[in-house]
Every structure is written in C-alpha cells, then in structure tokens.
User: Fold these one by one.
Assistant:
Number 1:
Amino acid sequence: MAKPKRVTAGVLLIGDELLSGRTRDVNLQEIATFLAPLGIAVAEARIVSDEADRIVMALNALRTSCTYVFTTGGIGPTHDDITADAVAAAFGVSIDVRDDALAVIEDWYSRSKTPLTESRKRMARIPDGASLVTNPVTGAPGFQIGNVFVMAGVPKIMRGMLEDVAHRLEGGAVTHAITVSAGGLREGDLAEALRTLQAGTLEVSIGSYPFFIETRDGAPRRGTNLVARSTDQGALNSAGEALMQIVRDAGGEPVLEDGAKR
Amino acid sequence: MAKPKRVTAGVLLIGDELLSGRTRDVNLQEIATFLAPLGIAVAEARIVSDEADRIVMALNALRTSCTYVFTTGGIGPTHDDITADAVAAAFGVSIDVRDDALAVIEDWYSRSKTPLTESRKRMARIPDGASLVTNPVTGAPGFQIGNVFVMAGVPKIMRGMLEDVAHRLEGGAVTHAITVSAGGLREGDLAEALRTLQAGTLEVSIGSYPFFIETRDGAPRRGTNLVARSTDQGALNSAGEALMQIVRDAGGEPVLEDGAKR
C-alpha cells in the first residue's frame, strides 16, 4: 500500500500584541482544527512582531518547509499593518493598490455608507500574482500568493476568510485521534507501559498530557490524558484498546473521550 | 543620554498538542507578562512538535538571536518528553541522570509516598553544565543552560518555575504602555492621524487593534484600541495625550485603560 501523502502547514502569527502579552492568540488552534479534517497537519508555528524583516524571514522559512502557510494579522488600514508589503517582499514581487481589491472595498463601504479614506484604500494593496480571499465580515480581502494564505488577525474575520480557503487546498491523509482519560493517575504511573506500546506501534503517535483541575469545592483533581493519533483507523483502534488496558492495569478507570479532540 | 539596553527573549513552545489544535497555549502570554516589568521583551516565539530535530533547529535559531530563551513542554516522564535530550544536543553537551536532580525527585516522591519508577527517574536527566530550576508544584526540576531556561508545559508548573528564574535574569529598559480605547470608531476613522503621529514619534511604538464584542443583548459593539509602548515615560505620556485627542477629533470618546495591558 502506498504511504499516505503527508501535507503540512506552517502558521505565521503576526503582531506586536501577541508577543507583548496584551493578546492571547486563538487563531492557531482555530486553523489547526480547521485543517485537520482536510488531512493537513500544522508542522510549525511562529509568532513575530510587526517588523518587515522578521515577517519576511519567518515566511520564507515556513513556505519552503511546509506545503501551505497561513498568516494572520497586519492587513488592516493602519500604519502598523505591513503584512501585505512584507509578503510581496518575501516573494520578490511588486505590490500596489489593485483594481479588483479596490472594487470589493468600495462596494462594501458604499453599502455601509462609510467614507473610503486613503487609509482604507491601502487595504487594496495586493501583491502581483495574488488572488483575493473573500472577507465576509468586514469586506477588505485577504489574499493567496503561491502556497501562502494571508488572513486577518481578528479571529471572527479570520474564521470567515477560511471559508474561502478550504476549496483551494489539496489535503492528504487525515490524522484521526482517540483520547483515553485516566483520572487519578499520574504520567509516571503509566510511562513504562506507554513506552512499550509506542515502541511496538510505529504507525500511531502516542501523547501523554497530565492535567490539574481546581474543582468547585477547592479540591484539586489530577489525572492524565492519553492521546493516540494516526492516519490508520485500524491501528488507531487497536492503540485505543491498548491504552484502555494500560489504564486499567495501573488501577484506573479509563474514559474514552470525544474523538474530535486531537 | 545612552540608549536604553534592549534585552530580548525568544519563547519556544514544545508539544504536538499545541499544533494539533488539542490545546490552546497560555504560556506565551504568561511569560511575556512576567518578563515585561523586568525590561525583557519577547522578540519571537516558535511552536514545534515533539521531534528532536525540530526542537534543536528552533532552539539554536532563538538562542543566538535573543538574549534569553524560555522553553515550555516535554520534560515529563513519558516517551514523548524529549526536550532535555534535544536541548543537550543543541548545545552539544552530554546528558544523563544527575545526582542533584535525582535527590530532589527522590525527596519529593518519598514525601508523597509515590513509587520512584524508572520513568520518573528519567526526569532527572539534565544536560552537563546546566543548573536546576525549582519546581514548587510537582518536584521534578527544570533547568538553565547558558541563556536557555527549560520549563514544564503545564501552566501551573511553568508559573511556579518562573519564580526561580527571575533572579537569574538581567533586565533592560522597561517598556511601558498606555491604552486608549475608542468605542464606536473603526481603524479607518483613525488611521491617517495615527500615521502622522507615529511618523513624528519614533521613540514610541503605536499599535491599533480593532475589536468586536457580542454584547449580552446580541447587539455587536465594535471599536478600536490604540496602544502606545515606549521605554521613555515622558514620550509615552505625550503620545497618550495625542491619542486621546485623535479619538476626540474623530468624534469619539476616548477611555484611558489600565496601563498594565501591553
């Protein structure tokens, strides 16, 4: 049987506010969850500030090492929105206000009776050779150039843009996941058995994640979530059974969780 | 006057679960918020999977470009915890179970009457030349090697370890921030004036962040937060005044927000 095709994504999150601690990113998780059912696995993510050279360097690294790259942030109308220009620089193409993008923005703002200022026109700056990505929330489009998709940083707008991205992607083998939760057990109670299982099950990747929950009555609850991930559903099911048994052998009561949690 | 010293941090978040979408990282924001008052600014963050070559490559890039590097994740007792070995490989030093780390772990587990398995002993694997970082939550230590601090991925443990990190850091000039919130105004209403302000105020960095809030009665509320950041408190105060005036000029009512939000 042919080895299933591995399709990878790089995610580049752009914005001073993500590095200063002001804002906690939510887009990476959203993108990963969106891509997973398409058979596209996020291989690496980087977070950089609104500085052209940092964006260019990170983008060039990711777009050569990953099948696709998804960027968020820096495509609004203000002076600190420099992503489009940086992407053009990374690809070595020119950039200017483009008629197709301007038409979209003009139409959007005329409907909402908002004046089309010079700053808003800047949002029509699109690199040569790029195709537009529809923004169903605030009008100003994102764009695709080569294997790179450039999207807004505001989560609601980013999610809207993803809808115009999915049909452009060629996915690979879908990675499925099974989670077995072992309340009351620590990683160290399970580690030896997990190591043996992983060594004998190369087509399944097994992860172990301790958790600590403060319950309502103040008593801490702890345990370990075991996650098996694989493109092979049969191997995954066997690994799931094995994980259940490992938890039982350690004196725990395994709980099979929603498979959507990867 | 001498230019204030710029001290930077790279953050390396390690773990398949962060890239698969299973887990949303909270450590980056925590680290950034912890470092800011020390005068250390996060310059770049990377998120990589539990694969040795990816960890080594990212760590070597960050530790040469930043003053300090902080890693989270991959130092537990299970087979997928390979961070310590990868860090040793990145530094080209050997690694083995070390007596000082083992003593800490033995002491911790004997108090909690938890058996010290071979897997738990693995948590005493510390690279040659590293110093231990105390873990006040679950015992097994992190470590410092050169300019790199290796910490746990579980947020509660990571926060605990930071307490034993602060005193080892030499900070620089502290970046202060002022946030002016402009409810009801969009970025495009303010962009021209912001551009002019930024062009004339090079010692202050001005950021603009649109927000969309779904209110309880379902009516969306939108607006723009303007953030000025600077190591120069005088310049920052002037910029704050200028931002307030820009919002008023655009017909809005500026609200000065808690300065702790960077």
Number 2:
Amino acid sequence: MVSLNRRYTFQVGDALANERTLTLSSGSNEGYLISLRPFVHPNASENEFPFEWGFAGPPASAKVGKKDSETDTIDFNFEFDTNVHLKLENTHRGVINTFWKTWESGLIEERGQVFPFGADKAGIEFFELWQPLDSTRPDYVALDENSANQETARSVVLTVDSTDFRGLVITVGRWVQGILFKKSENTIKGINFLRAVEQQDGSWKTLLNYGSDFDKFPQSFVAPLHAAIEGSSALTWKVVESNI
Amino acid sequence: MVSLNRRYTFQVGDALANERTLTLSSGSNEGYLISLRPFVHPNASENEFPFEWGFAGPPASAKVGKKDSETDTIDFNFEFDTNVHLKLENTHRGVINTFWKTWESGLIEERGQVFPFGADKAGIEFFELWQPLDSTRPDYVALDENSANQETARSVVLTVDSTDFRGLVITVGRWVQGILFKKSENTIKGINFLRAVEQQDGSWKTLLNYGSDFDKFPQSFVAPLHAAIEGSSALTWKVVESNI
C-alpha cells in the first residue's frame, strides 16, 4: 500500500498549534519513505534554505509496531536527514519513537518526543496531524471511500549512491518526491529536493526545485525494476522498487 | 465570495485535539451560513441523533470584525441552533465571540470560548482548525491557486418559515446543506438535516439524510431569486439569494 500524507498541524512543546509548511510524506508499497517540508512563506532568515526539514530512507528507516489496539508505533531512523547532513547543533540524532492514532474522521495523529539537546537531556514533545491524500489524483484530494485503491497504486523507487552523491526518489501514484545529498558538502549547497505531480495529460509539473545539483535528479520517474535512469547531468539512478 | 470549510480539529478545554465528525461549514456570497457536524462513527448514545451540533443563520448571524492585522473576529448568534431547539441543558446561549487566523499553509484557526453553564460562570476555551475546500469540485479538494475563483462561485439560498416549519438551505458551488426545524417539536424528531453534492454528471448525491420531515426539503436547489420551490411534501421554499 502506498501512502501520501499532507501535514495539517505541527505543534512543539508548549507552543500553539500551527502549520507553516506544505509538507508531504510519501510511503512506497515496499516501505521506502520521504518527507519534504518546505515553508510556504519563508521569512528572511529562512530564504536561503526554505525548509523546516527533509528526510528519507529505505524500509529499515521505519520500524512499525503496536502499542495497543488503538495506537501504532513507528521508530524512525532516517538514512537521509537534512539536520544530520548539515551537522546542525541542537537537533535530534538517532531513533525517534512515534505513536500514531487514526481519528474517526480519518485524520492521523502522530505524537512523540525529540531530544535536540542529547538523549540524556530533556525531550521535547511534538504533535503532528496528517490528512491521507488520494495519491492517484493530481490535486490535494482527501482520501475517502470514493478514492482509488491505494493498496495497488503505483510506486517506483530510484536510488543513487556514487562517489559524490547519494539520493532517493519515490513516486507514489501521481506524486514524486526526491532528495539528493552531495556527500562531501555538508552545507545547504549539498542538499537538493524535488517534488513533482503528474497532471491529467501525463505531463509532470514541478512543485519543488531546490539545489545546485537539481539537474542530477532523474528526468523520468516510472520504469521497470533494475532499470538505469540518467539525470541530465549524467548521474545514473537505479530502480530498486517498481509497482507499475 | 462563497466558502466551504471542512473541520480538521476540534479541541475543547484541556482535552487533546481530536475530530470525530465530518463537519462542513458553508458560507454564501451574501453571508448566509450553515454548519452541519455529523459523527463519522457515532457511539451507542449518539446513534439516535448522530450529530455533534448543527447551526445556521442569515448574514446577521455572523458579525465580522478585526482584532488586529492578523486576527479577524466573528461574533456568532445563530438563528438555527440544534442545542437551543432541543432546549439542551449546559449548552451555550447567545453570542459566541470567535477569533480567526489564517496560517501560512492556508489552514484557518478558530479560537473562542463558550459558556455552557451561563454567561456569569466560567467559560470553556475551544480551538477549531479549518481547511478551505474548492466548492466547485465534488470531492474534498483543498483550495489552492489552481482552484476556481470562489469569489464568483455559485450560491443559492432557500428559506421557509411556515406555521409549522422553519428552514434554511444553502448551496455553494456543488455543495448543498440544509436544516429544517419543526417549530412545535423540541425533540430530535423536530430536526432535519440535508447534505448533498452535485456530481460531475450533474446528478445530486445525498450525503446526509436525517429527520422524519426530510422529504420536506426542496428537491432542487438552484433557481433564480424569488422563485418558489416545493419539497415533495408540499412545503414551499423561497429563493432569497441567487448567484448562478
């Protein structure tokens, strides 16, 4: 089953609920995941890197369990994490334990704690609220009983791990999100993001285009397993999952 | 401008955020409003009347103002209020002062206080989070820059005020919601709700059908100003607003 979730609330510690980003989290049939969190209206200090956060990883990045009949657990440990790549101080490292409840309305509550000052220091609680979307539609359409079956929706995952770059691009339904790190460049110049959506006519509309190596992302996203796909700058991506 | 907002969070007092309903609030071009709040999975005690609340009113029901540059105020005083019609104890009476902020993501925060134990007793704070929808689409599609212009979207308002009944039906875009009270029946038998959406093929799909006098709702919702429309049980509705 694929998932495409849009975040509707982010609440940290004692702050009031808010949502300044257009965050989408994608999950492939086989459990690859990516979450890109661009600010909608970045302020002056955010302009150069207008993202709250971005992370991604293979299925092993998210260990799924159950706390009780109403609560799922996911223990995240991301292979791609912009905070880690940027070596930002006072940001969390390692596993994040999260607790998930589906509300009667179909919205999904996520709660957890992060430890930005170290695992032995006080944690900070967070609450995020997610709306599952119909990944087969090119607009932000809430998932409901009229939606296409997300169990069988398309998902394709591309990866690259070269001398200089590592990246992950996940397509679920009509939506693609990608992250590409330049290994030796631990500044915002080493981070690239892609978000695009396939329109009704089959063309791809780019929604996020960030980073000096953006042209190394693949130009097409849907291919059979084990295919090799080149970006326009000759970086070769490998198809590691293909449900098409 | 019409509005069609879906509620994504309801938080009261010290309780955790939640959303158990599929609440839609409609506002017509001229300021008629209706909000119907059906439980998605009513529990045993809610089965007979599976609604958190329903209210509606003419433009005078909502006095709009400004608290500061970021905060709008709306002082509500509903002409139709299920709590009042049912004479429920420990529910609010009279004006409700609310404060509205639009988040950068486009979600809309509403905060306020209700006084269920009387205006001289302690108030209870509430927080509601709203997602504006594209009223011209038959699914729950988030309003964004690709949406149709809601400034000029269709709105039609029908009212009835007979010896026995009073009611209000509001169409915005493809969505219709209606409320009908039997004046002398201050029980749930005196309350009727309608929600329907116009499909792509022009047919209307009923989403909410509640009440023993449901057949007194009009069968068509779009008509020119001052037209008279009959329900199947010979109650005559009058068109008081028509932007078609």
